[in-house]
Amino acid sequence: MITVALVTGFALVLAGLYGALTNRNILRMIVSFTVADAGVNLVLVAVGAMPGRTAPILDAAVPVGDAARRIIDPLPQALVLTAIVIGLGVTALMLAYAYRLHATRGSLDISKFTELKW
Amino acid sequence: MSNLSTAMSLVLAAGMLVAALLSIITRSLPLAILSAGAVSLFASIMFMLLAAPDVAMTEAAIGSGLTTFLFFFVLGRVGGKGHG
Amino acid sequence: MVKHLVAFLLLAVLAAVFASLTLGYQPDAALNRTALYYAENTAKDLGAQNIVTAIVVTYRGLDTLGEVTVLFLTSAIVGLILSTHRATGEGRATGIPAAGELLRTGSRLLVPLILLAGVYVFVNGHLTPGGGFQGGAILASAALLMLLADPLHRFGHRLIAVVESLSGVAYVAIGLLGLAWAGGFLDNRFLPLGDFGTLFSAGAIPVIYTLIGLKVGAEFASMLASLSETEKS
User: Fold this and answer.
1) Which of A14, C18, C135, C169 could potentially form a cystine with C118 if both were Cys, beta carbons 3.0 to 4.6 Å apart?
2) pLDDT tens-digit series, residues C85-96
3) Mutate to test the interface with B, among C8, C51, C134, C220 (most CBs of B within 10 A)
4) Interfacial B residues in 44-83 facing A (CB < 8 Å)
């Protein structure tokens, strides 16, 4: 199960990067970035998981004294929690820039923006 | 139990990969956005299987909910001609 | 075509790296030292049931403060970029028909319930899965429902800004209280730890997570509002 999640996460990262590199529409590039984002989060959580253990919550199922043998690593989960929220912030920022580009230039085709090309 | 969760994770992985490919290959931009949302939704179920309920809630609410709507707001403003 | 070839080459190199990472991967059999510390000492030190919450709010609270700051900056920049294109509401050409009776009543009924669900999620963040970020996203989805049900409705940006600033200031103030009366910045132990597993426990963690939830919800709502108030370009 963990290996499946790991392989899927890496595959999503590759697919997202492929889409971001080959698409020319800026909105489609942003969509591809969110796919890659989900893949990175999946890889991080999969690295923290351990077979046969449960979530890091000390309720009736996991007594406090037994916690060290029953729960999985909580740190990657805390990291991914913040990464998802920041991911939405970054996506919103990219979308706002895309909207502004479309408003000033009337196009979302990346090949039409050649000012920084050499 | 272990077999069941392995089978579920395989199904979810297949769904995620298909949705990801669809979101990158398809010519229609609304379909691409919806498929990216589906990738997030499947990912949140996968997080549940990986014993990370906190992350699953976050991904379901933020990754597949709010992000999709942000995309549609912008798509509605820029006309939705997604070819090129 | 050359561009595609270069992209494929790059991805092939990356895939090789990922494959080498995956092939030899073996999940850990025991917790590493950091995780072991969290597993053994969270209940004793902080009194929180949910260890992820304890890490996010207290052990790595400074990171979370930084993250909330990044989120605030993002929503401020989104508002700034879109500000010159904001429609004024009345002056906007409205091709959208007014919301029907069913939609208006339904959204009026649902918005308080969604807000309640969001508050429940972040007040119970130290006991059950969930917390400020998830609850904040649920609060923002109530704002989203209002926007979708009535696209011409204008949000009180003043209210959103007040909620956001007050919760941000209170967050830092609680951190300073921890510095004065407990072990350090954002230490939760200046309030009593209470009985393990009850709502009023874990010191200041529920208070801090409530503030984070309000702040995150206000920031997401302001992002959604500024994006939806733009004009069709």
Assistant:
1) C135
2) 555 544 454 566
3) C134
4) 46-47, 49-55, 58-59, 62-63, 66-67, 70-71, 73-75, 77-78, 82-83
A61-108 pLDDT per residue, tens: 777 777 777 788 888 888 898 899 899 989 989 988 888 888 888 777
* pTM (predicted TM-score): 0.87
The residue extents of the domains of chain A are 2-57+68-112
> Which are the contacts of C98, defined by CB distance < 8 A and separation ≥ 6?
C152
Q: Does the pLDDT of residue A35 top 50, yes or no?
A: yes
**Shortest distance, CA C76 to any CA of chain A (angstroms):** 10
Confirm whether B84 is domain-assigned.
no
Assigned token pair, C201 = 């426990």
Residue B47, in any domain of the structure: yes
**What torsion do the CA atoms of C17, C18, C19, C23 make, to the nearest 10 degrees?**
110
Q: Determine contact: C99 vs chain A, CB below 8 A.
A: no
Tell me, yes or no, whether B59 lies in a domain.
yes
Tokens of C36: 């072991």
Count of domains observed in chain B: 1
Answer whether residue B13 is part of any domain: yes
Specify the CATH class of A2-57+68-112 in words: mainly alpha
Cβ of residue C29 closer than 8 Å to a chain A Cβ: yes
Q: Do C11 and A3 touch (CB under 8 A)?
A: no
